Amino acid sequence: MTLPHPNTDQISLPIVLAVLGDPTRLAIVRYLASKEGVALNCSQFLDLGSKTNLSYHLAKLREAGVTRAEVVGTNRMITLRRTDLDARFPGLLDSVIAAAGDDPALPAVGGHDIEVPA
Amino acid sequence: MTLPHPNTDQISLPIVLAVLGDPTRLAIVRYLASKEGVALNCSQFLDLGSKTNLSYHLAKLREAGVTRAEVVGTNRMITLRRTDLDARFPGLLDSVIAAAGDDPALPAVGGHDIEVPA
DNA sequence: TCCTTAGTTCAAAAGTTATTGAACAATTGG
DNA sequence: CCAATTGTTCAATAACTTTTGAACTAAGGA
C-alpha cells in the first residue's frame, strides 16, 4: 500500500508555488521543516483544520512533490522531500521557510505540546 | 495618477507564492527579471494572453507587491520590485527565477524581438 | 471478534480565480 | 479637434479550490 508521488524531475515549479501559497499548507511545511527528520502523522496538524480538510491539503502537498507519505499501519507518516526539492529547485525551500519564519501573521501548528505537570 | 502598491513590510509570503504559482504571472516575472532595469509596458506581454487578461494578471502582481507600475503617459511602465522583495524575503526571488530558468514546460514571452533587417 | 484509531472518499456547497468581450477613460500626435 | 494608442473596468461565465459531514476502509489492540 504505497501512495502515488511524483518523481523528482516531475515536480513542477508553478504547482509547488501554488501549493505553498495556501496558508494552511505553508503552516504544515513550516512545521515539518521545524521537525526535520521526524516523521509525523496527520493528527499532528489538527490545529490547522478538520481531519477531512487536512487529508485534502496533505494530498495536495504530496501530489505536488513537497511531502512524502509513508503508510505505517493505520498511520501515514509525513516527511518533507527536502533532498528532492533542493535538487530540483536549489534554495527555494530554504528561502520560503526563512521568509515564513518571522511572520507572525501566518498560522502555525502548536499549542498542544505535552505539558510537564508541576 | 499613481496606482496603489503595498509597502515592503506589507508584502505577504502566501500571497506572493500564490501569485507566482500562476504560469502566466510566472512568465511575466521571468521576463521582467531577464530585462532588469528596463521598464516595460503591458503590450510586451501580449504573447501571454489578451489585453484584458494581462491587465488582470499585472494588477495581481502589483497588488501582491511583486511589481511596480508607473504611469507614463498612456503607458504603465512595469518593473520588478527586486530590492523590496530581496529585503522582505531574501533569496526567494532568485531561487524562483533560477528554478524557472531551466524549465521548458513554462510559457515564455518572446517571438517578437525587433528583427534586424539583412 | 469487536471496538477503536487513523485516515480516505464522496458528493454537495461555498467561495475564489481566470477569461472573455464590450464599453470606457486618458493621453498623445496629426 | 479628431483619431489612434494604451490600458482599465464591468458583468458574465467558466473553471477551479476549499470546506464540510457522512460513510467508508484498514489495521491494531482488548
TrEMBL record, chains A, B:
Keywords of this entry: DNA-binding, Transcription, Transcription regulation
Family annotation (Gene3D superfamilies): Winged helix-like DNA-binding domain superfamily/Winged helix DNA-binding domain
Ranges of residues in domain HTH arsR-type: 15-94
Classification via Pfam families: HTH_20
Domain of life: Bacteria
InterPro entries assigned: ArsR-like_HTH, HTH_ArsR_DNA-bd_dom, HTH_MetalResp_TranReg, WH-like_DNA-bd_sf, WH_DNA-bd_sf
GO molecular function: DNA binding; DNA-binding transcription factor activity
Cited SMART domains: HTH_ARSR
CDD domains: HTH_ARSR
UniProt-listed PANTHER family: TRANSCRIPTIONAL REGULATOR, ARSR FAMILY, TRANSCRIPTIONAL REGULATORY PROTEIN
Protein name: Helix-turn-helix transcriptional regulator
Source organism of the structure: Mesorhizobium neociceri
